Amino acid sequence: MEATFDVLVVGAGCAGMRAAIEAHDRGARVGVISKLHPTRSHSGAAEGGINAALGNTAEDSPEKHAFDTVKGSDYLGDQDAIEIFTREAPDDIYQLEHWGAVFSRNAEGRLDQRPFGAAGSPRTVYAADITGHVLIQVLYEQLQRRMAQGMTVFEEYFAFRLLVEDGRCTGVISWDLMNGGVKLITGKSVILATGGVGRLYRATTNAYACTGDGMSMALHEGLPLKDIEFMQFHPTTMYPSGILITEGCRGEGGYLINKDGERFMQRYAPNALELASRDVVSRSETTEIEAGRGVNGSVYLDLRHLGAEKILTKLPGSRELAITYAGVDPIYAPIPVRPGAHYHMGGVETDNWGLTEIEGLYAAGEVACVSVHGANRLGGNSLMETITFGRRSGQAAAEYSLGAPAPGNGGEAARVDAETWVKSLLGNTAGERPWSIRDELGQSMLDNFGVFRRPEKMEKQIEIIAGLRERYDRGIVIEDKGDVFNNDLTQAIELGYLLDIASCMLQAGIARTESRGAHSRPYDFPDRDDEHFLKHSISRWNGDGPELTYGEVRMTQWKPMERTY
After folding, report:
1. What DSSP state is assigned to residue 224?
2. What is the mean pLDDT of the segment spanning 412-428?
3. 260: how many CB neighbours lie within 10 A of its CB?
4. What pLDDT does residue 560 have?
5. What is the DSSP letter of 556?
6. What does the alpha-carbon distance between residue 481 and residue 160 come to, in Å, rounded to a whole number?
């Protein structure tokens, strides 16, 4: 046995580090596992900001933040969770600031807040356009401080199985990337904070490591995935690289124009224009492109009218990215952009404290579905969710573990079983390389389950996924037989996760015969259907495939109404 803890956190992005900090501060002995160095986690790629109603403007409040979030979710968000989220967000922002987060300030010296899409008031706190980078560095500093007090961090450990004994989660089985070997790490409780699954798509803003690890591990232990069909496409990813250009560019006044120089959002969202919700803007861009008013499958993000000073002070990172990866200086020329897969609204179903159906197992961040985002996430809400619900899950896991018994004795047998499985993967000498299946999956998901979803394409994608799964199960060849930094091995395991989540997404997407938020079926079911589909999709793994049921949306004070911007 490698080690045992009170609370074991799997993942070290913003949600995982915030959970670990809270659990430690509540008196628990904490271990953290990350397949990356923590500051390389995908949370660091978040750019535009983090939402909280700080009271800097008289018209804003946590209640208005909650309403905007409910409306943005296309009324699929659970309103009790949303109210907790918006009520607790301001104090979490102040704590981050006290820990050393250097947020941008306005002329009065207050924390500055910029407008973001579908927000009724400027409430997005930001650090220029590198907010995620700032937060992850600050949290890592706090993690290091607690490491000096006894917290343990296992960097470059790839968790690939949960240990569940007698209905209770008591650890994870990992591959030691640096040294090789299957390792068992146990805990009285476990928090999943492994991030999303954007790498299902070829064109994505997500890091290469975002492969749905935690979602798939939970799925195979019988846990439900909630609202898994809802993948958000961010409107402004650079052509051709897919690198994110922050919504902050539009928050600061950037325009979207087509090949004719027309500010086309006037047609689709005459009031909010470029600051409509992300699903609306992505659909508008796709409509322009499909109508022949785009350029090379993209439209343009125009910042020229903002002036050099504003771009250099508030959007320096976006300018650098555009120059480096698109060969465009936005001070002088517009940036070619298009929608790209960005964020998964669905995930492992949890309660408002991050607890799953399995005793001792919690989840927070993009791997989880609490659900504050419903069918469509508002920009700036995801970073806030990682902090608020990371903190809440850390508190709950610590309180549970301090009164829980030690893990049982079944871990070593589970580790040996996992080791045998890994050796069988490494021993395969016939089959195909994982990358070929992964590439086909990414391109076909983009073609058949993207911004617009057509029934015949979704049916085709189900067949494609079944064929890819058959090829995967027949055997894949891992050419690298070594133990140290064996990316061939980890990518083979990750491919299985991707295929699992893709199957769930397609099943739930075909069954949802309406258009709601990021799930748009304009050719057969163009309208939202509250009578039949104001409900969460619930996906479980049954034998060799997913099984779909539905759950109730929790409502407090806001009844569904038409969503316009």
Report:
1. P
2. 93
3. 8
4. 96
5. S
6. 18
CA distances (Å), origin 525, targets 160, 274, 537: 38, 25, 17
Least Cα distance to 407 among 171, 220, 235 occurs for: 171
Contact of 101 with 52, CB cutoff 8 Å: no
CA distance linking residue 78 with residue 58, whole number of Å: 27
* Nearest-angstrom CA–CA distance, 8 and 551: 29
Retrieve residue 331's tokens.
């001070």
Measured on CA atoms in the order 446, 452, 458, 462, is the torsion positive or negative?
positive
Give the residue from 209, 190, 179, 183 showing the smallest Cα distance to 493. 209
Distance between CA atoms of residues 435 and 416, nearest Å: 28
Query: pLDDT tens digits, residue range 204-229?
Result: 999 999 999 999 999 999 999 999 99
In DSSP terms, which residues pair with 172 in a beta bridge?
162, 185
* Residues catalogued as catalytic: 278
Angle at 118 between CA 390 and CA 199, to 5 degrees: 55
Classify the C-alpha dihedral 527-532-535-537 as positive or negative.
negative
**Using CA atoms, how far apart are residues 7 and 130, in angstroms rounded to an integer?**
30
Q: Which two tokens stand for residue 141?
A: 């500093």
φ, ψ for residue 276 (rounded to 5)? -70, 175
Report the distance separating Cα 522 and Cα 9, nearest Å.
Answer: 41
Written in H, E and C, the secondary structure of 418-451 is HHHHHHHHHHCCCCECHHHHHHHHHHHHHHHCCC
Instruction: Record the pTM.
Output: 0.96
CA distance 40 to 37: 5
At 492 the three-state DSSP class reads helix
Buried b (16+ CB within 10 A) or exposed e, 73-89: bbbbbbbebbbbbbbbb
Give the CA radius of gyration of the chain: 22
The string of pLDDT tens digits covering residues 508-562 is 999 999 999 999 999 999 999 999 999 999 999 998 899 999 999 999 999 999 9
Q: Report the C-alpha gap between 250 and 303 in whole angstroms.
A: 8
Beta strand extents in 331-490 (DSSP E only): 335-344, 347-349, 361-363, 368-369
**Beta strands 182-192 and 361-363, pairing class:** parallel
Of all residues in the chain, the percent with pLDDT exceeding 90 is: 95
Nearest to 274 by CA among 289, 285, 288: 285
Q: What mean pLDDT do residues 354-368 have?
A: 98
